[in-house]
Write a structure and sequence with these properties.
Layout lengths: L9 E14 L2 E14 L3 E5 L6 H8 L8 E10 L2 E2 L5 H7 L4 E4 L13 H12 L4 H14 L5 H4 L9 H13 L5 E5 L7 H18 L2 E5 L3 H7 L2 E6 L2 E7 H6 L4 H8 L49 E4 L2 E3 L6
Parallel strand pairs: 3-8, 3-9, 6-7, 7-8
Antiparallel strand pairs: 1-2, 1-4, 4-5, 9-10, 10-12, 11-12
Helix pairs in contact: 3-4, 3-6, 6-7
The chain binds adenosine-5'-diphosphate (ADP) and magnesium ion (MG).
Amino acid sequence: MTLANSPNEVVLEVENLCTYFSTRWGTVKAVDGVSFELRRGETLGIVGESGCGKSVTMLSLMRLIPSPPGEIVNGRIMLEGQDLLQLSENEMSKVRGSQIALIIQDPMTSLNPVFSIGSQVNEAIRIHQDIPKRSILEHTLEVLRKVNIPAAESRVKDYPHQLSGGMRQRVVGAIGISCEPSVLIADEPTTSLDVTIQAQYLKLLKDLQQQSNLALIFITHDFGVVAKMCDRVAVMYAGKVVETGGVRDIFNNPSHPYTEALLASVPKLEEDVERLYAIEGQPPALHDLPPGCSFADRCPYVMERCREEYPAAFQVSESHQAACWRLA
Ligand SMILES: Nc1ncnc2c1ncn2[C@@H]1O[C@H](COP(=O)(O)OP(=O)(O)O)[C@@H](O)[C@H]1O
Ligand SMILES: [Mg+2]
């Protein structure tokens, strides 16, 4: 293995990413100064309540922010040595799918009902790779087999409605990996699936990752999934990463009050599901953020300083950072 492709090499580096939307209420700072890095073969979990900017961050990485009203106003996205924000739309369309791919939230709506699954899987292959027709079919079958679709030769002509939910999820996964990207983003892929299919799908993603040393970004609000799937975690709140660390750092020593609250609200088996979201209050409106820490209004440890100045990211340990004044 060459050094340039070593397993621990940083494949994606995001620095101070800011994505804003112009709305009639004002500027919505959906993503505001997000930084993280991702290494080959690694799984990074991104967690946070709904509306905190997880999907907008990922759409920014893909450069799929609808503009207007959205705009990436600042930052750097270095993918395998090139800055995606400097690429022309044409150059970016070559990167999309082949170097970085996104599996979106709802597998049911991300497949087109009027095309066979084969043609949807090989669409990306046809765009990105210059290969003859016969080998396109071969490649499509190979990808379908990789995601464990039985009898791929006959399934390839099926339409989405002919498949079960679990199979459709696999097809969406197949589209994601069809051009062997270095980075695969899975945005809450399991929310609409039943538990058994969910477990199978998570295992599938892990297998695919091991086969090709894929770097995976996993978006979820389920800490159970984080524990099973991820090496590192970034916790997002109101458009910012408030804590990052190894999975053990986050579970054993949550250092931002928001992470602590999220972990405390994970339902225990013996408890009522009603307690799922135990954090009082609402995240702040992103067009009208208060000065200081955005979590201040919900924080049990709030101090005067928290309302005045946004805390820097403090080092908790070598692998662990949190943006909270209690650590100053
Ligand atoms: N097209 C848009 N116009 C205005 N605001 C948007 C648009 N898309 C997303 N947002 C806002 O960006 C914020 C972050 O959204 P999102 O990234 O989807 O959250 P998450 O994925 O964490 O649930 C939300 O407040 C949302 O309202
Ligand atoms: Mg989302």
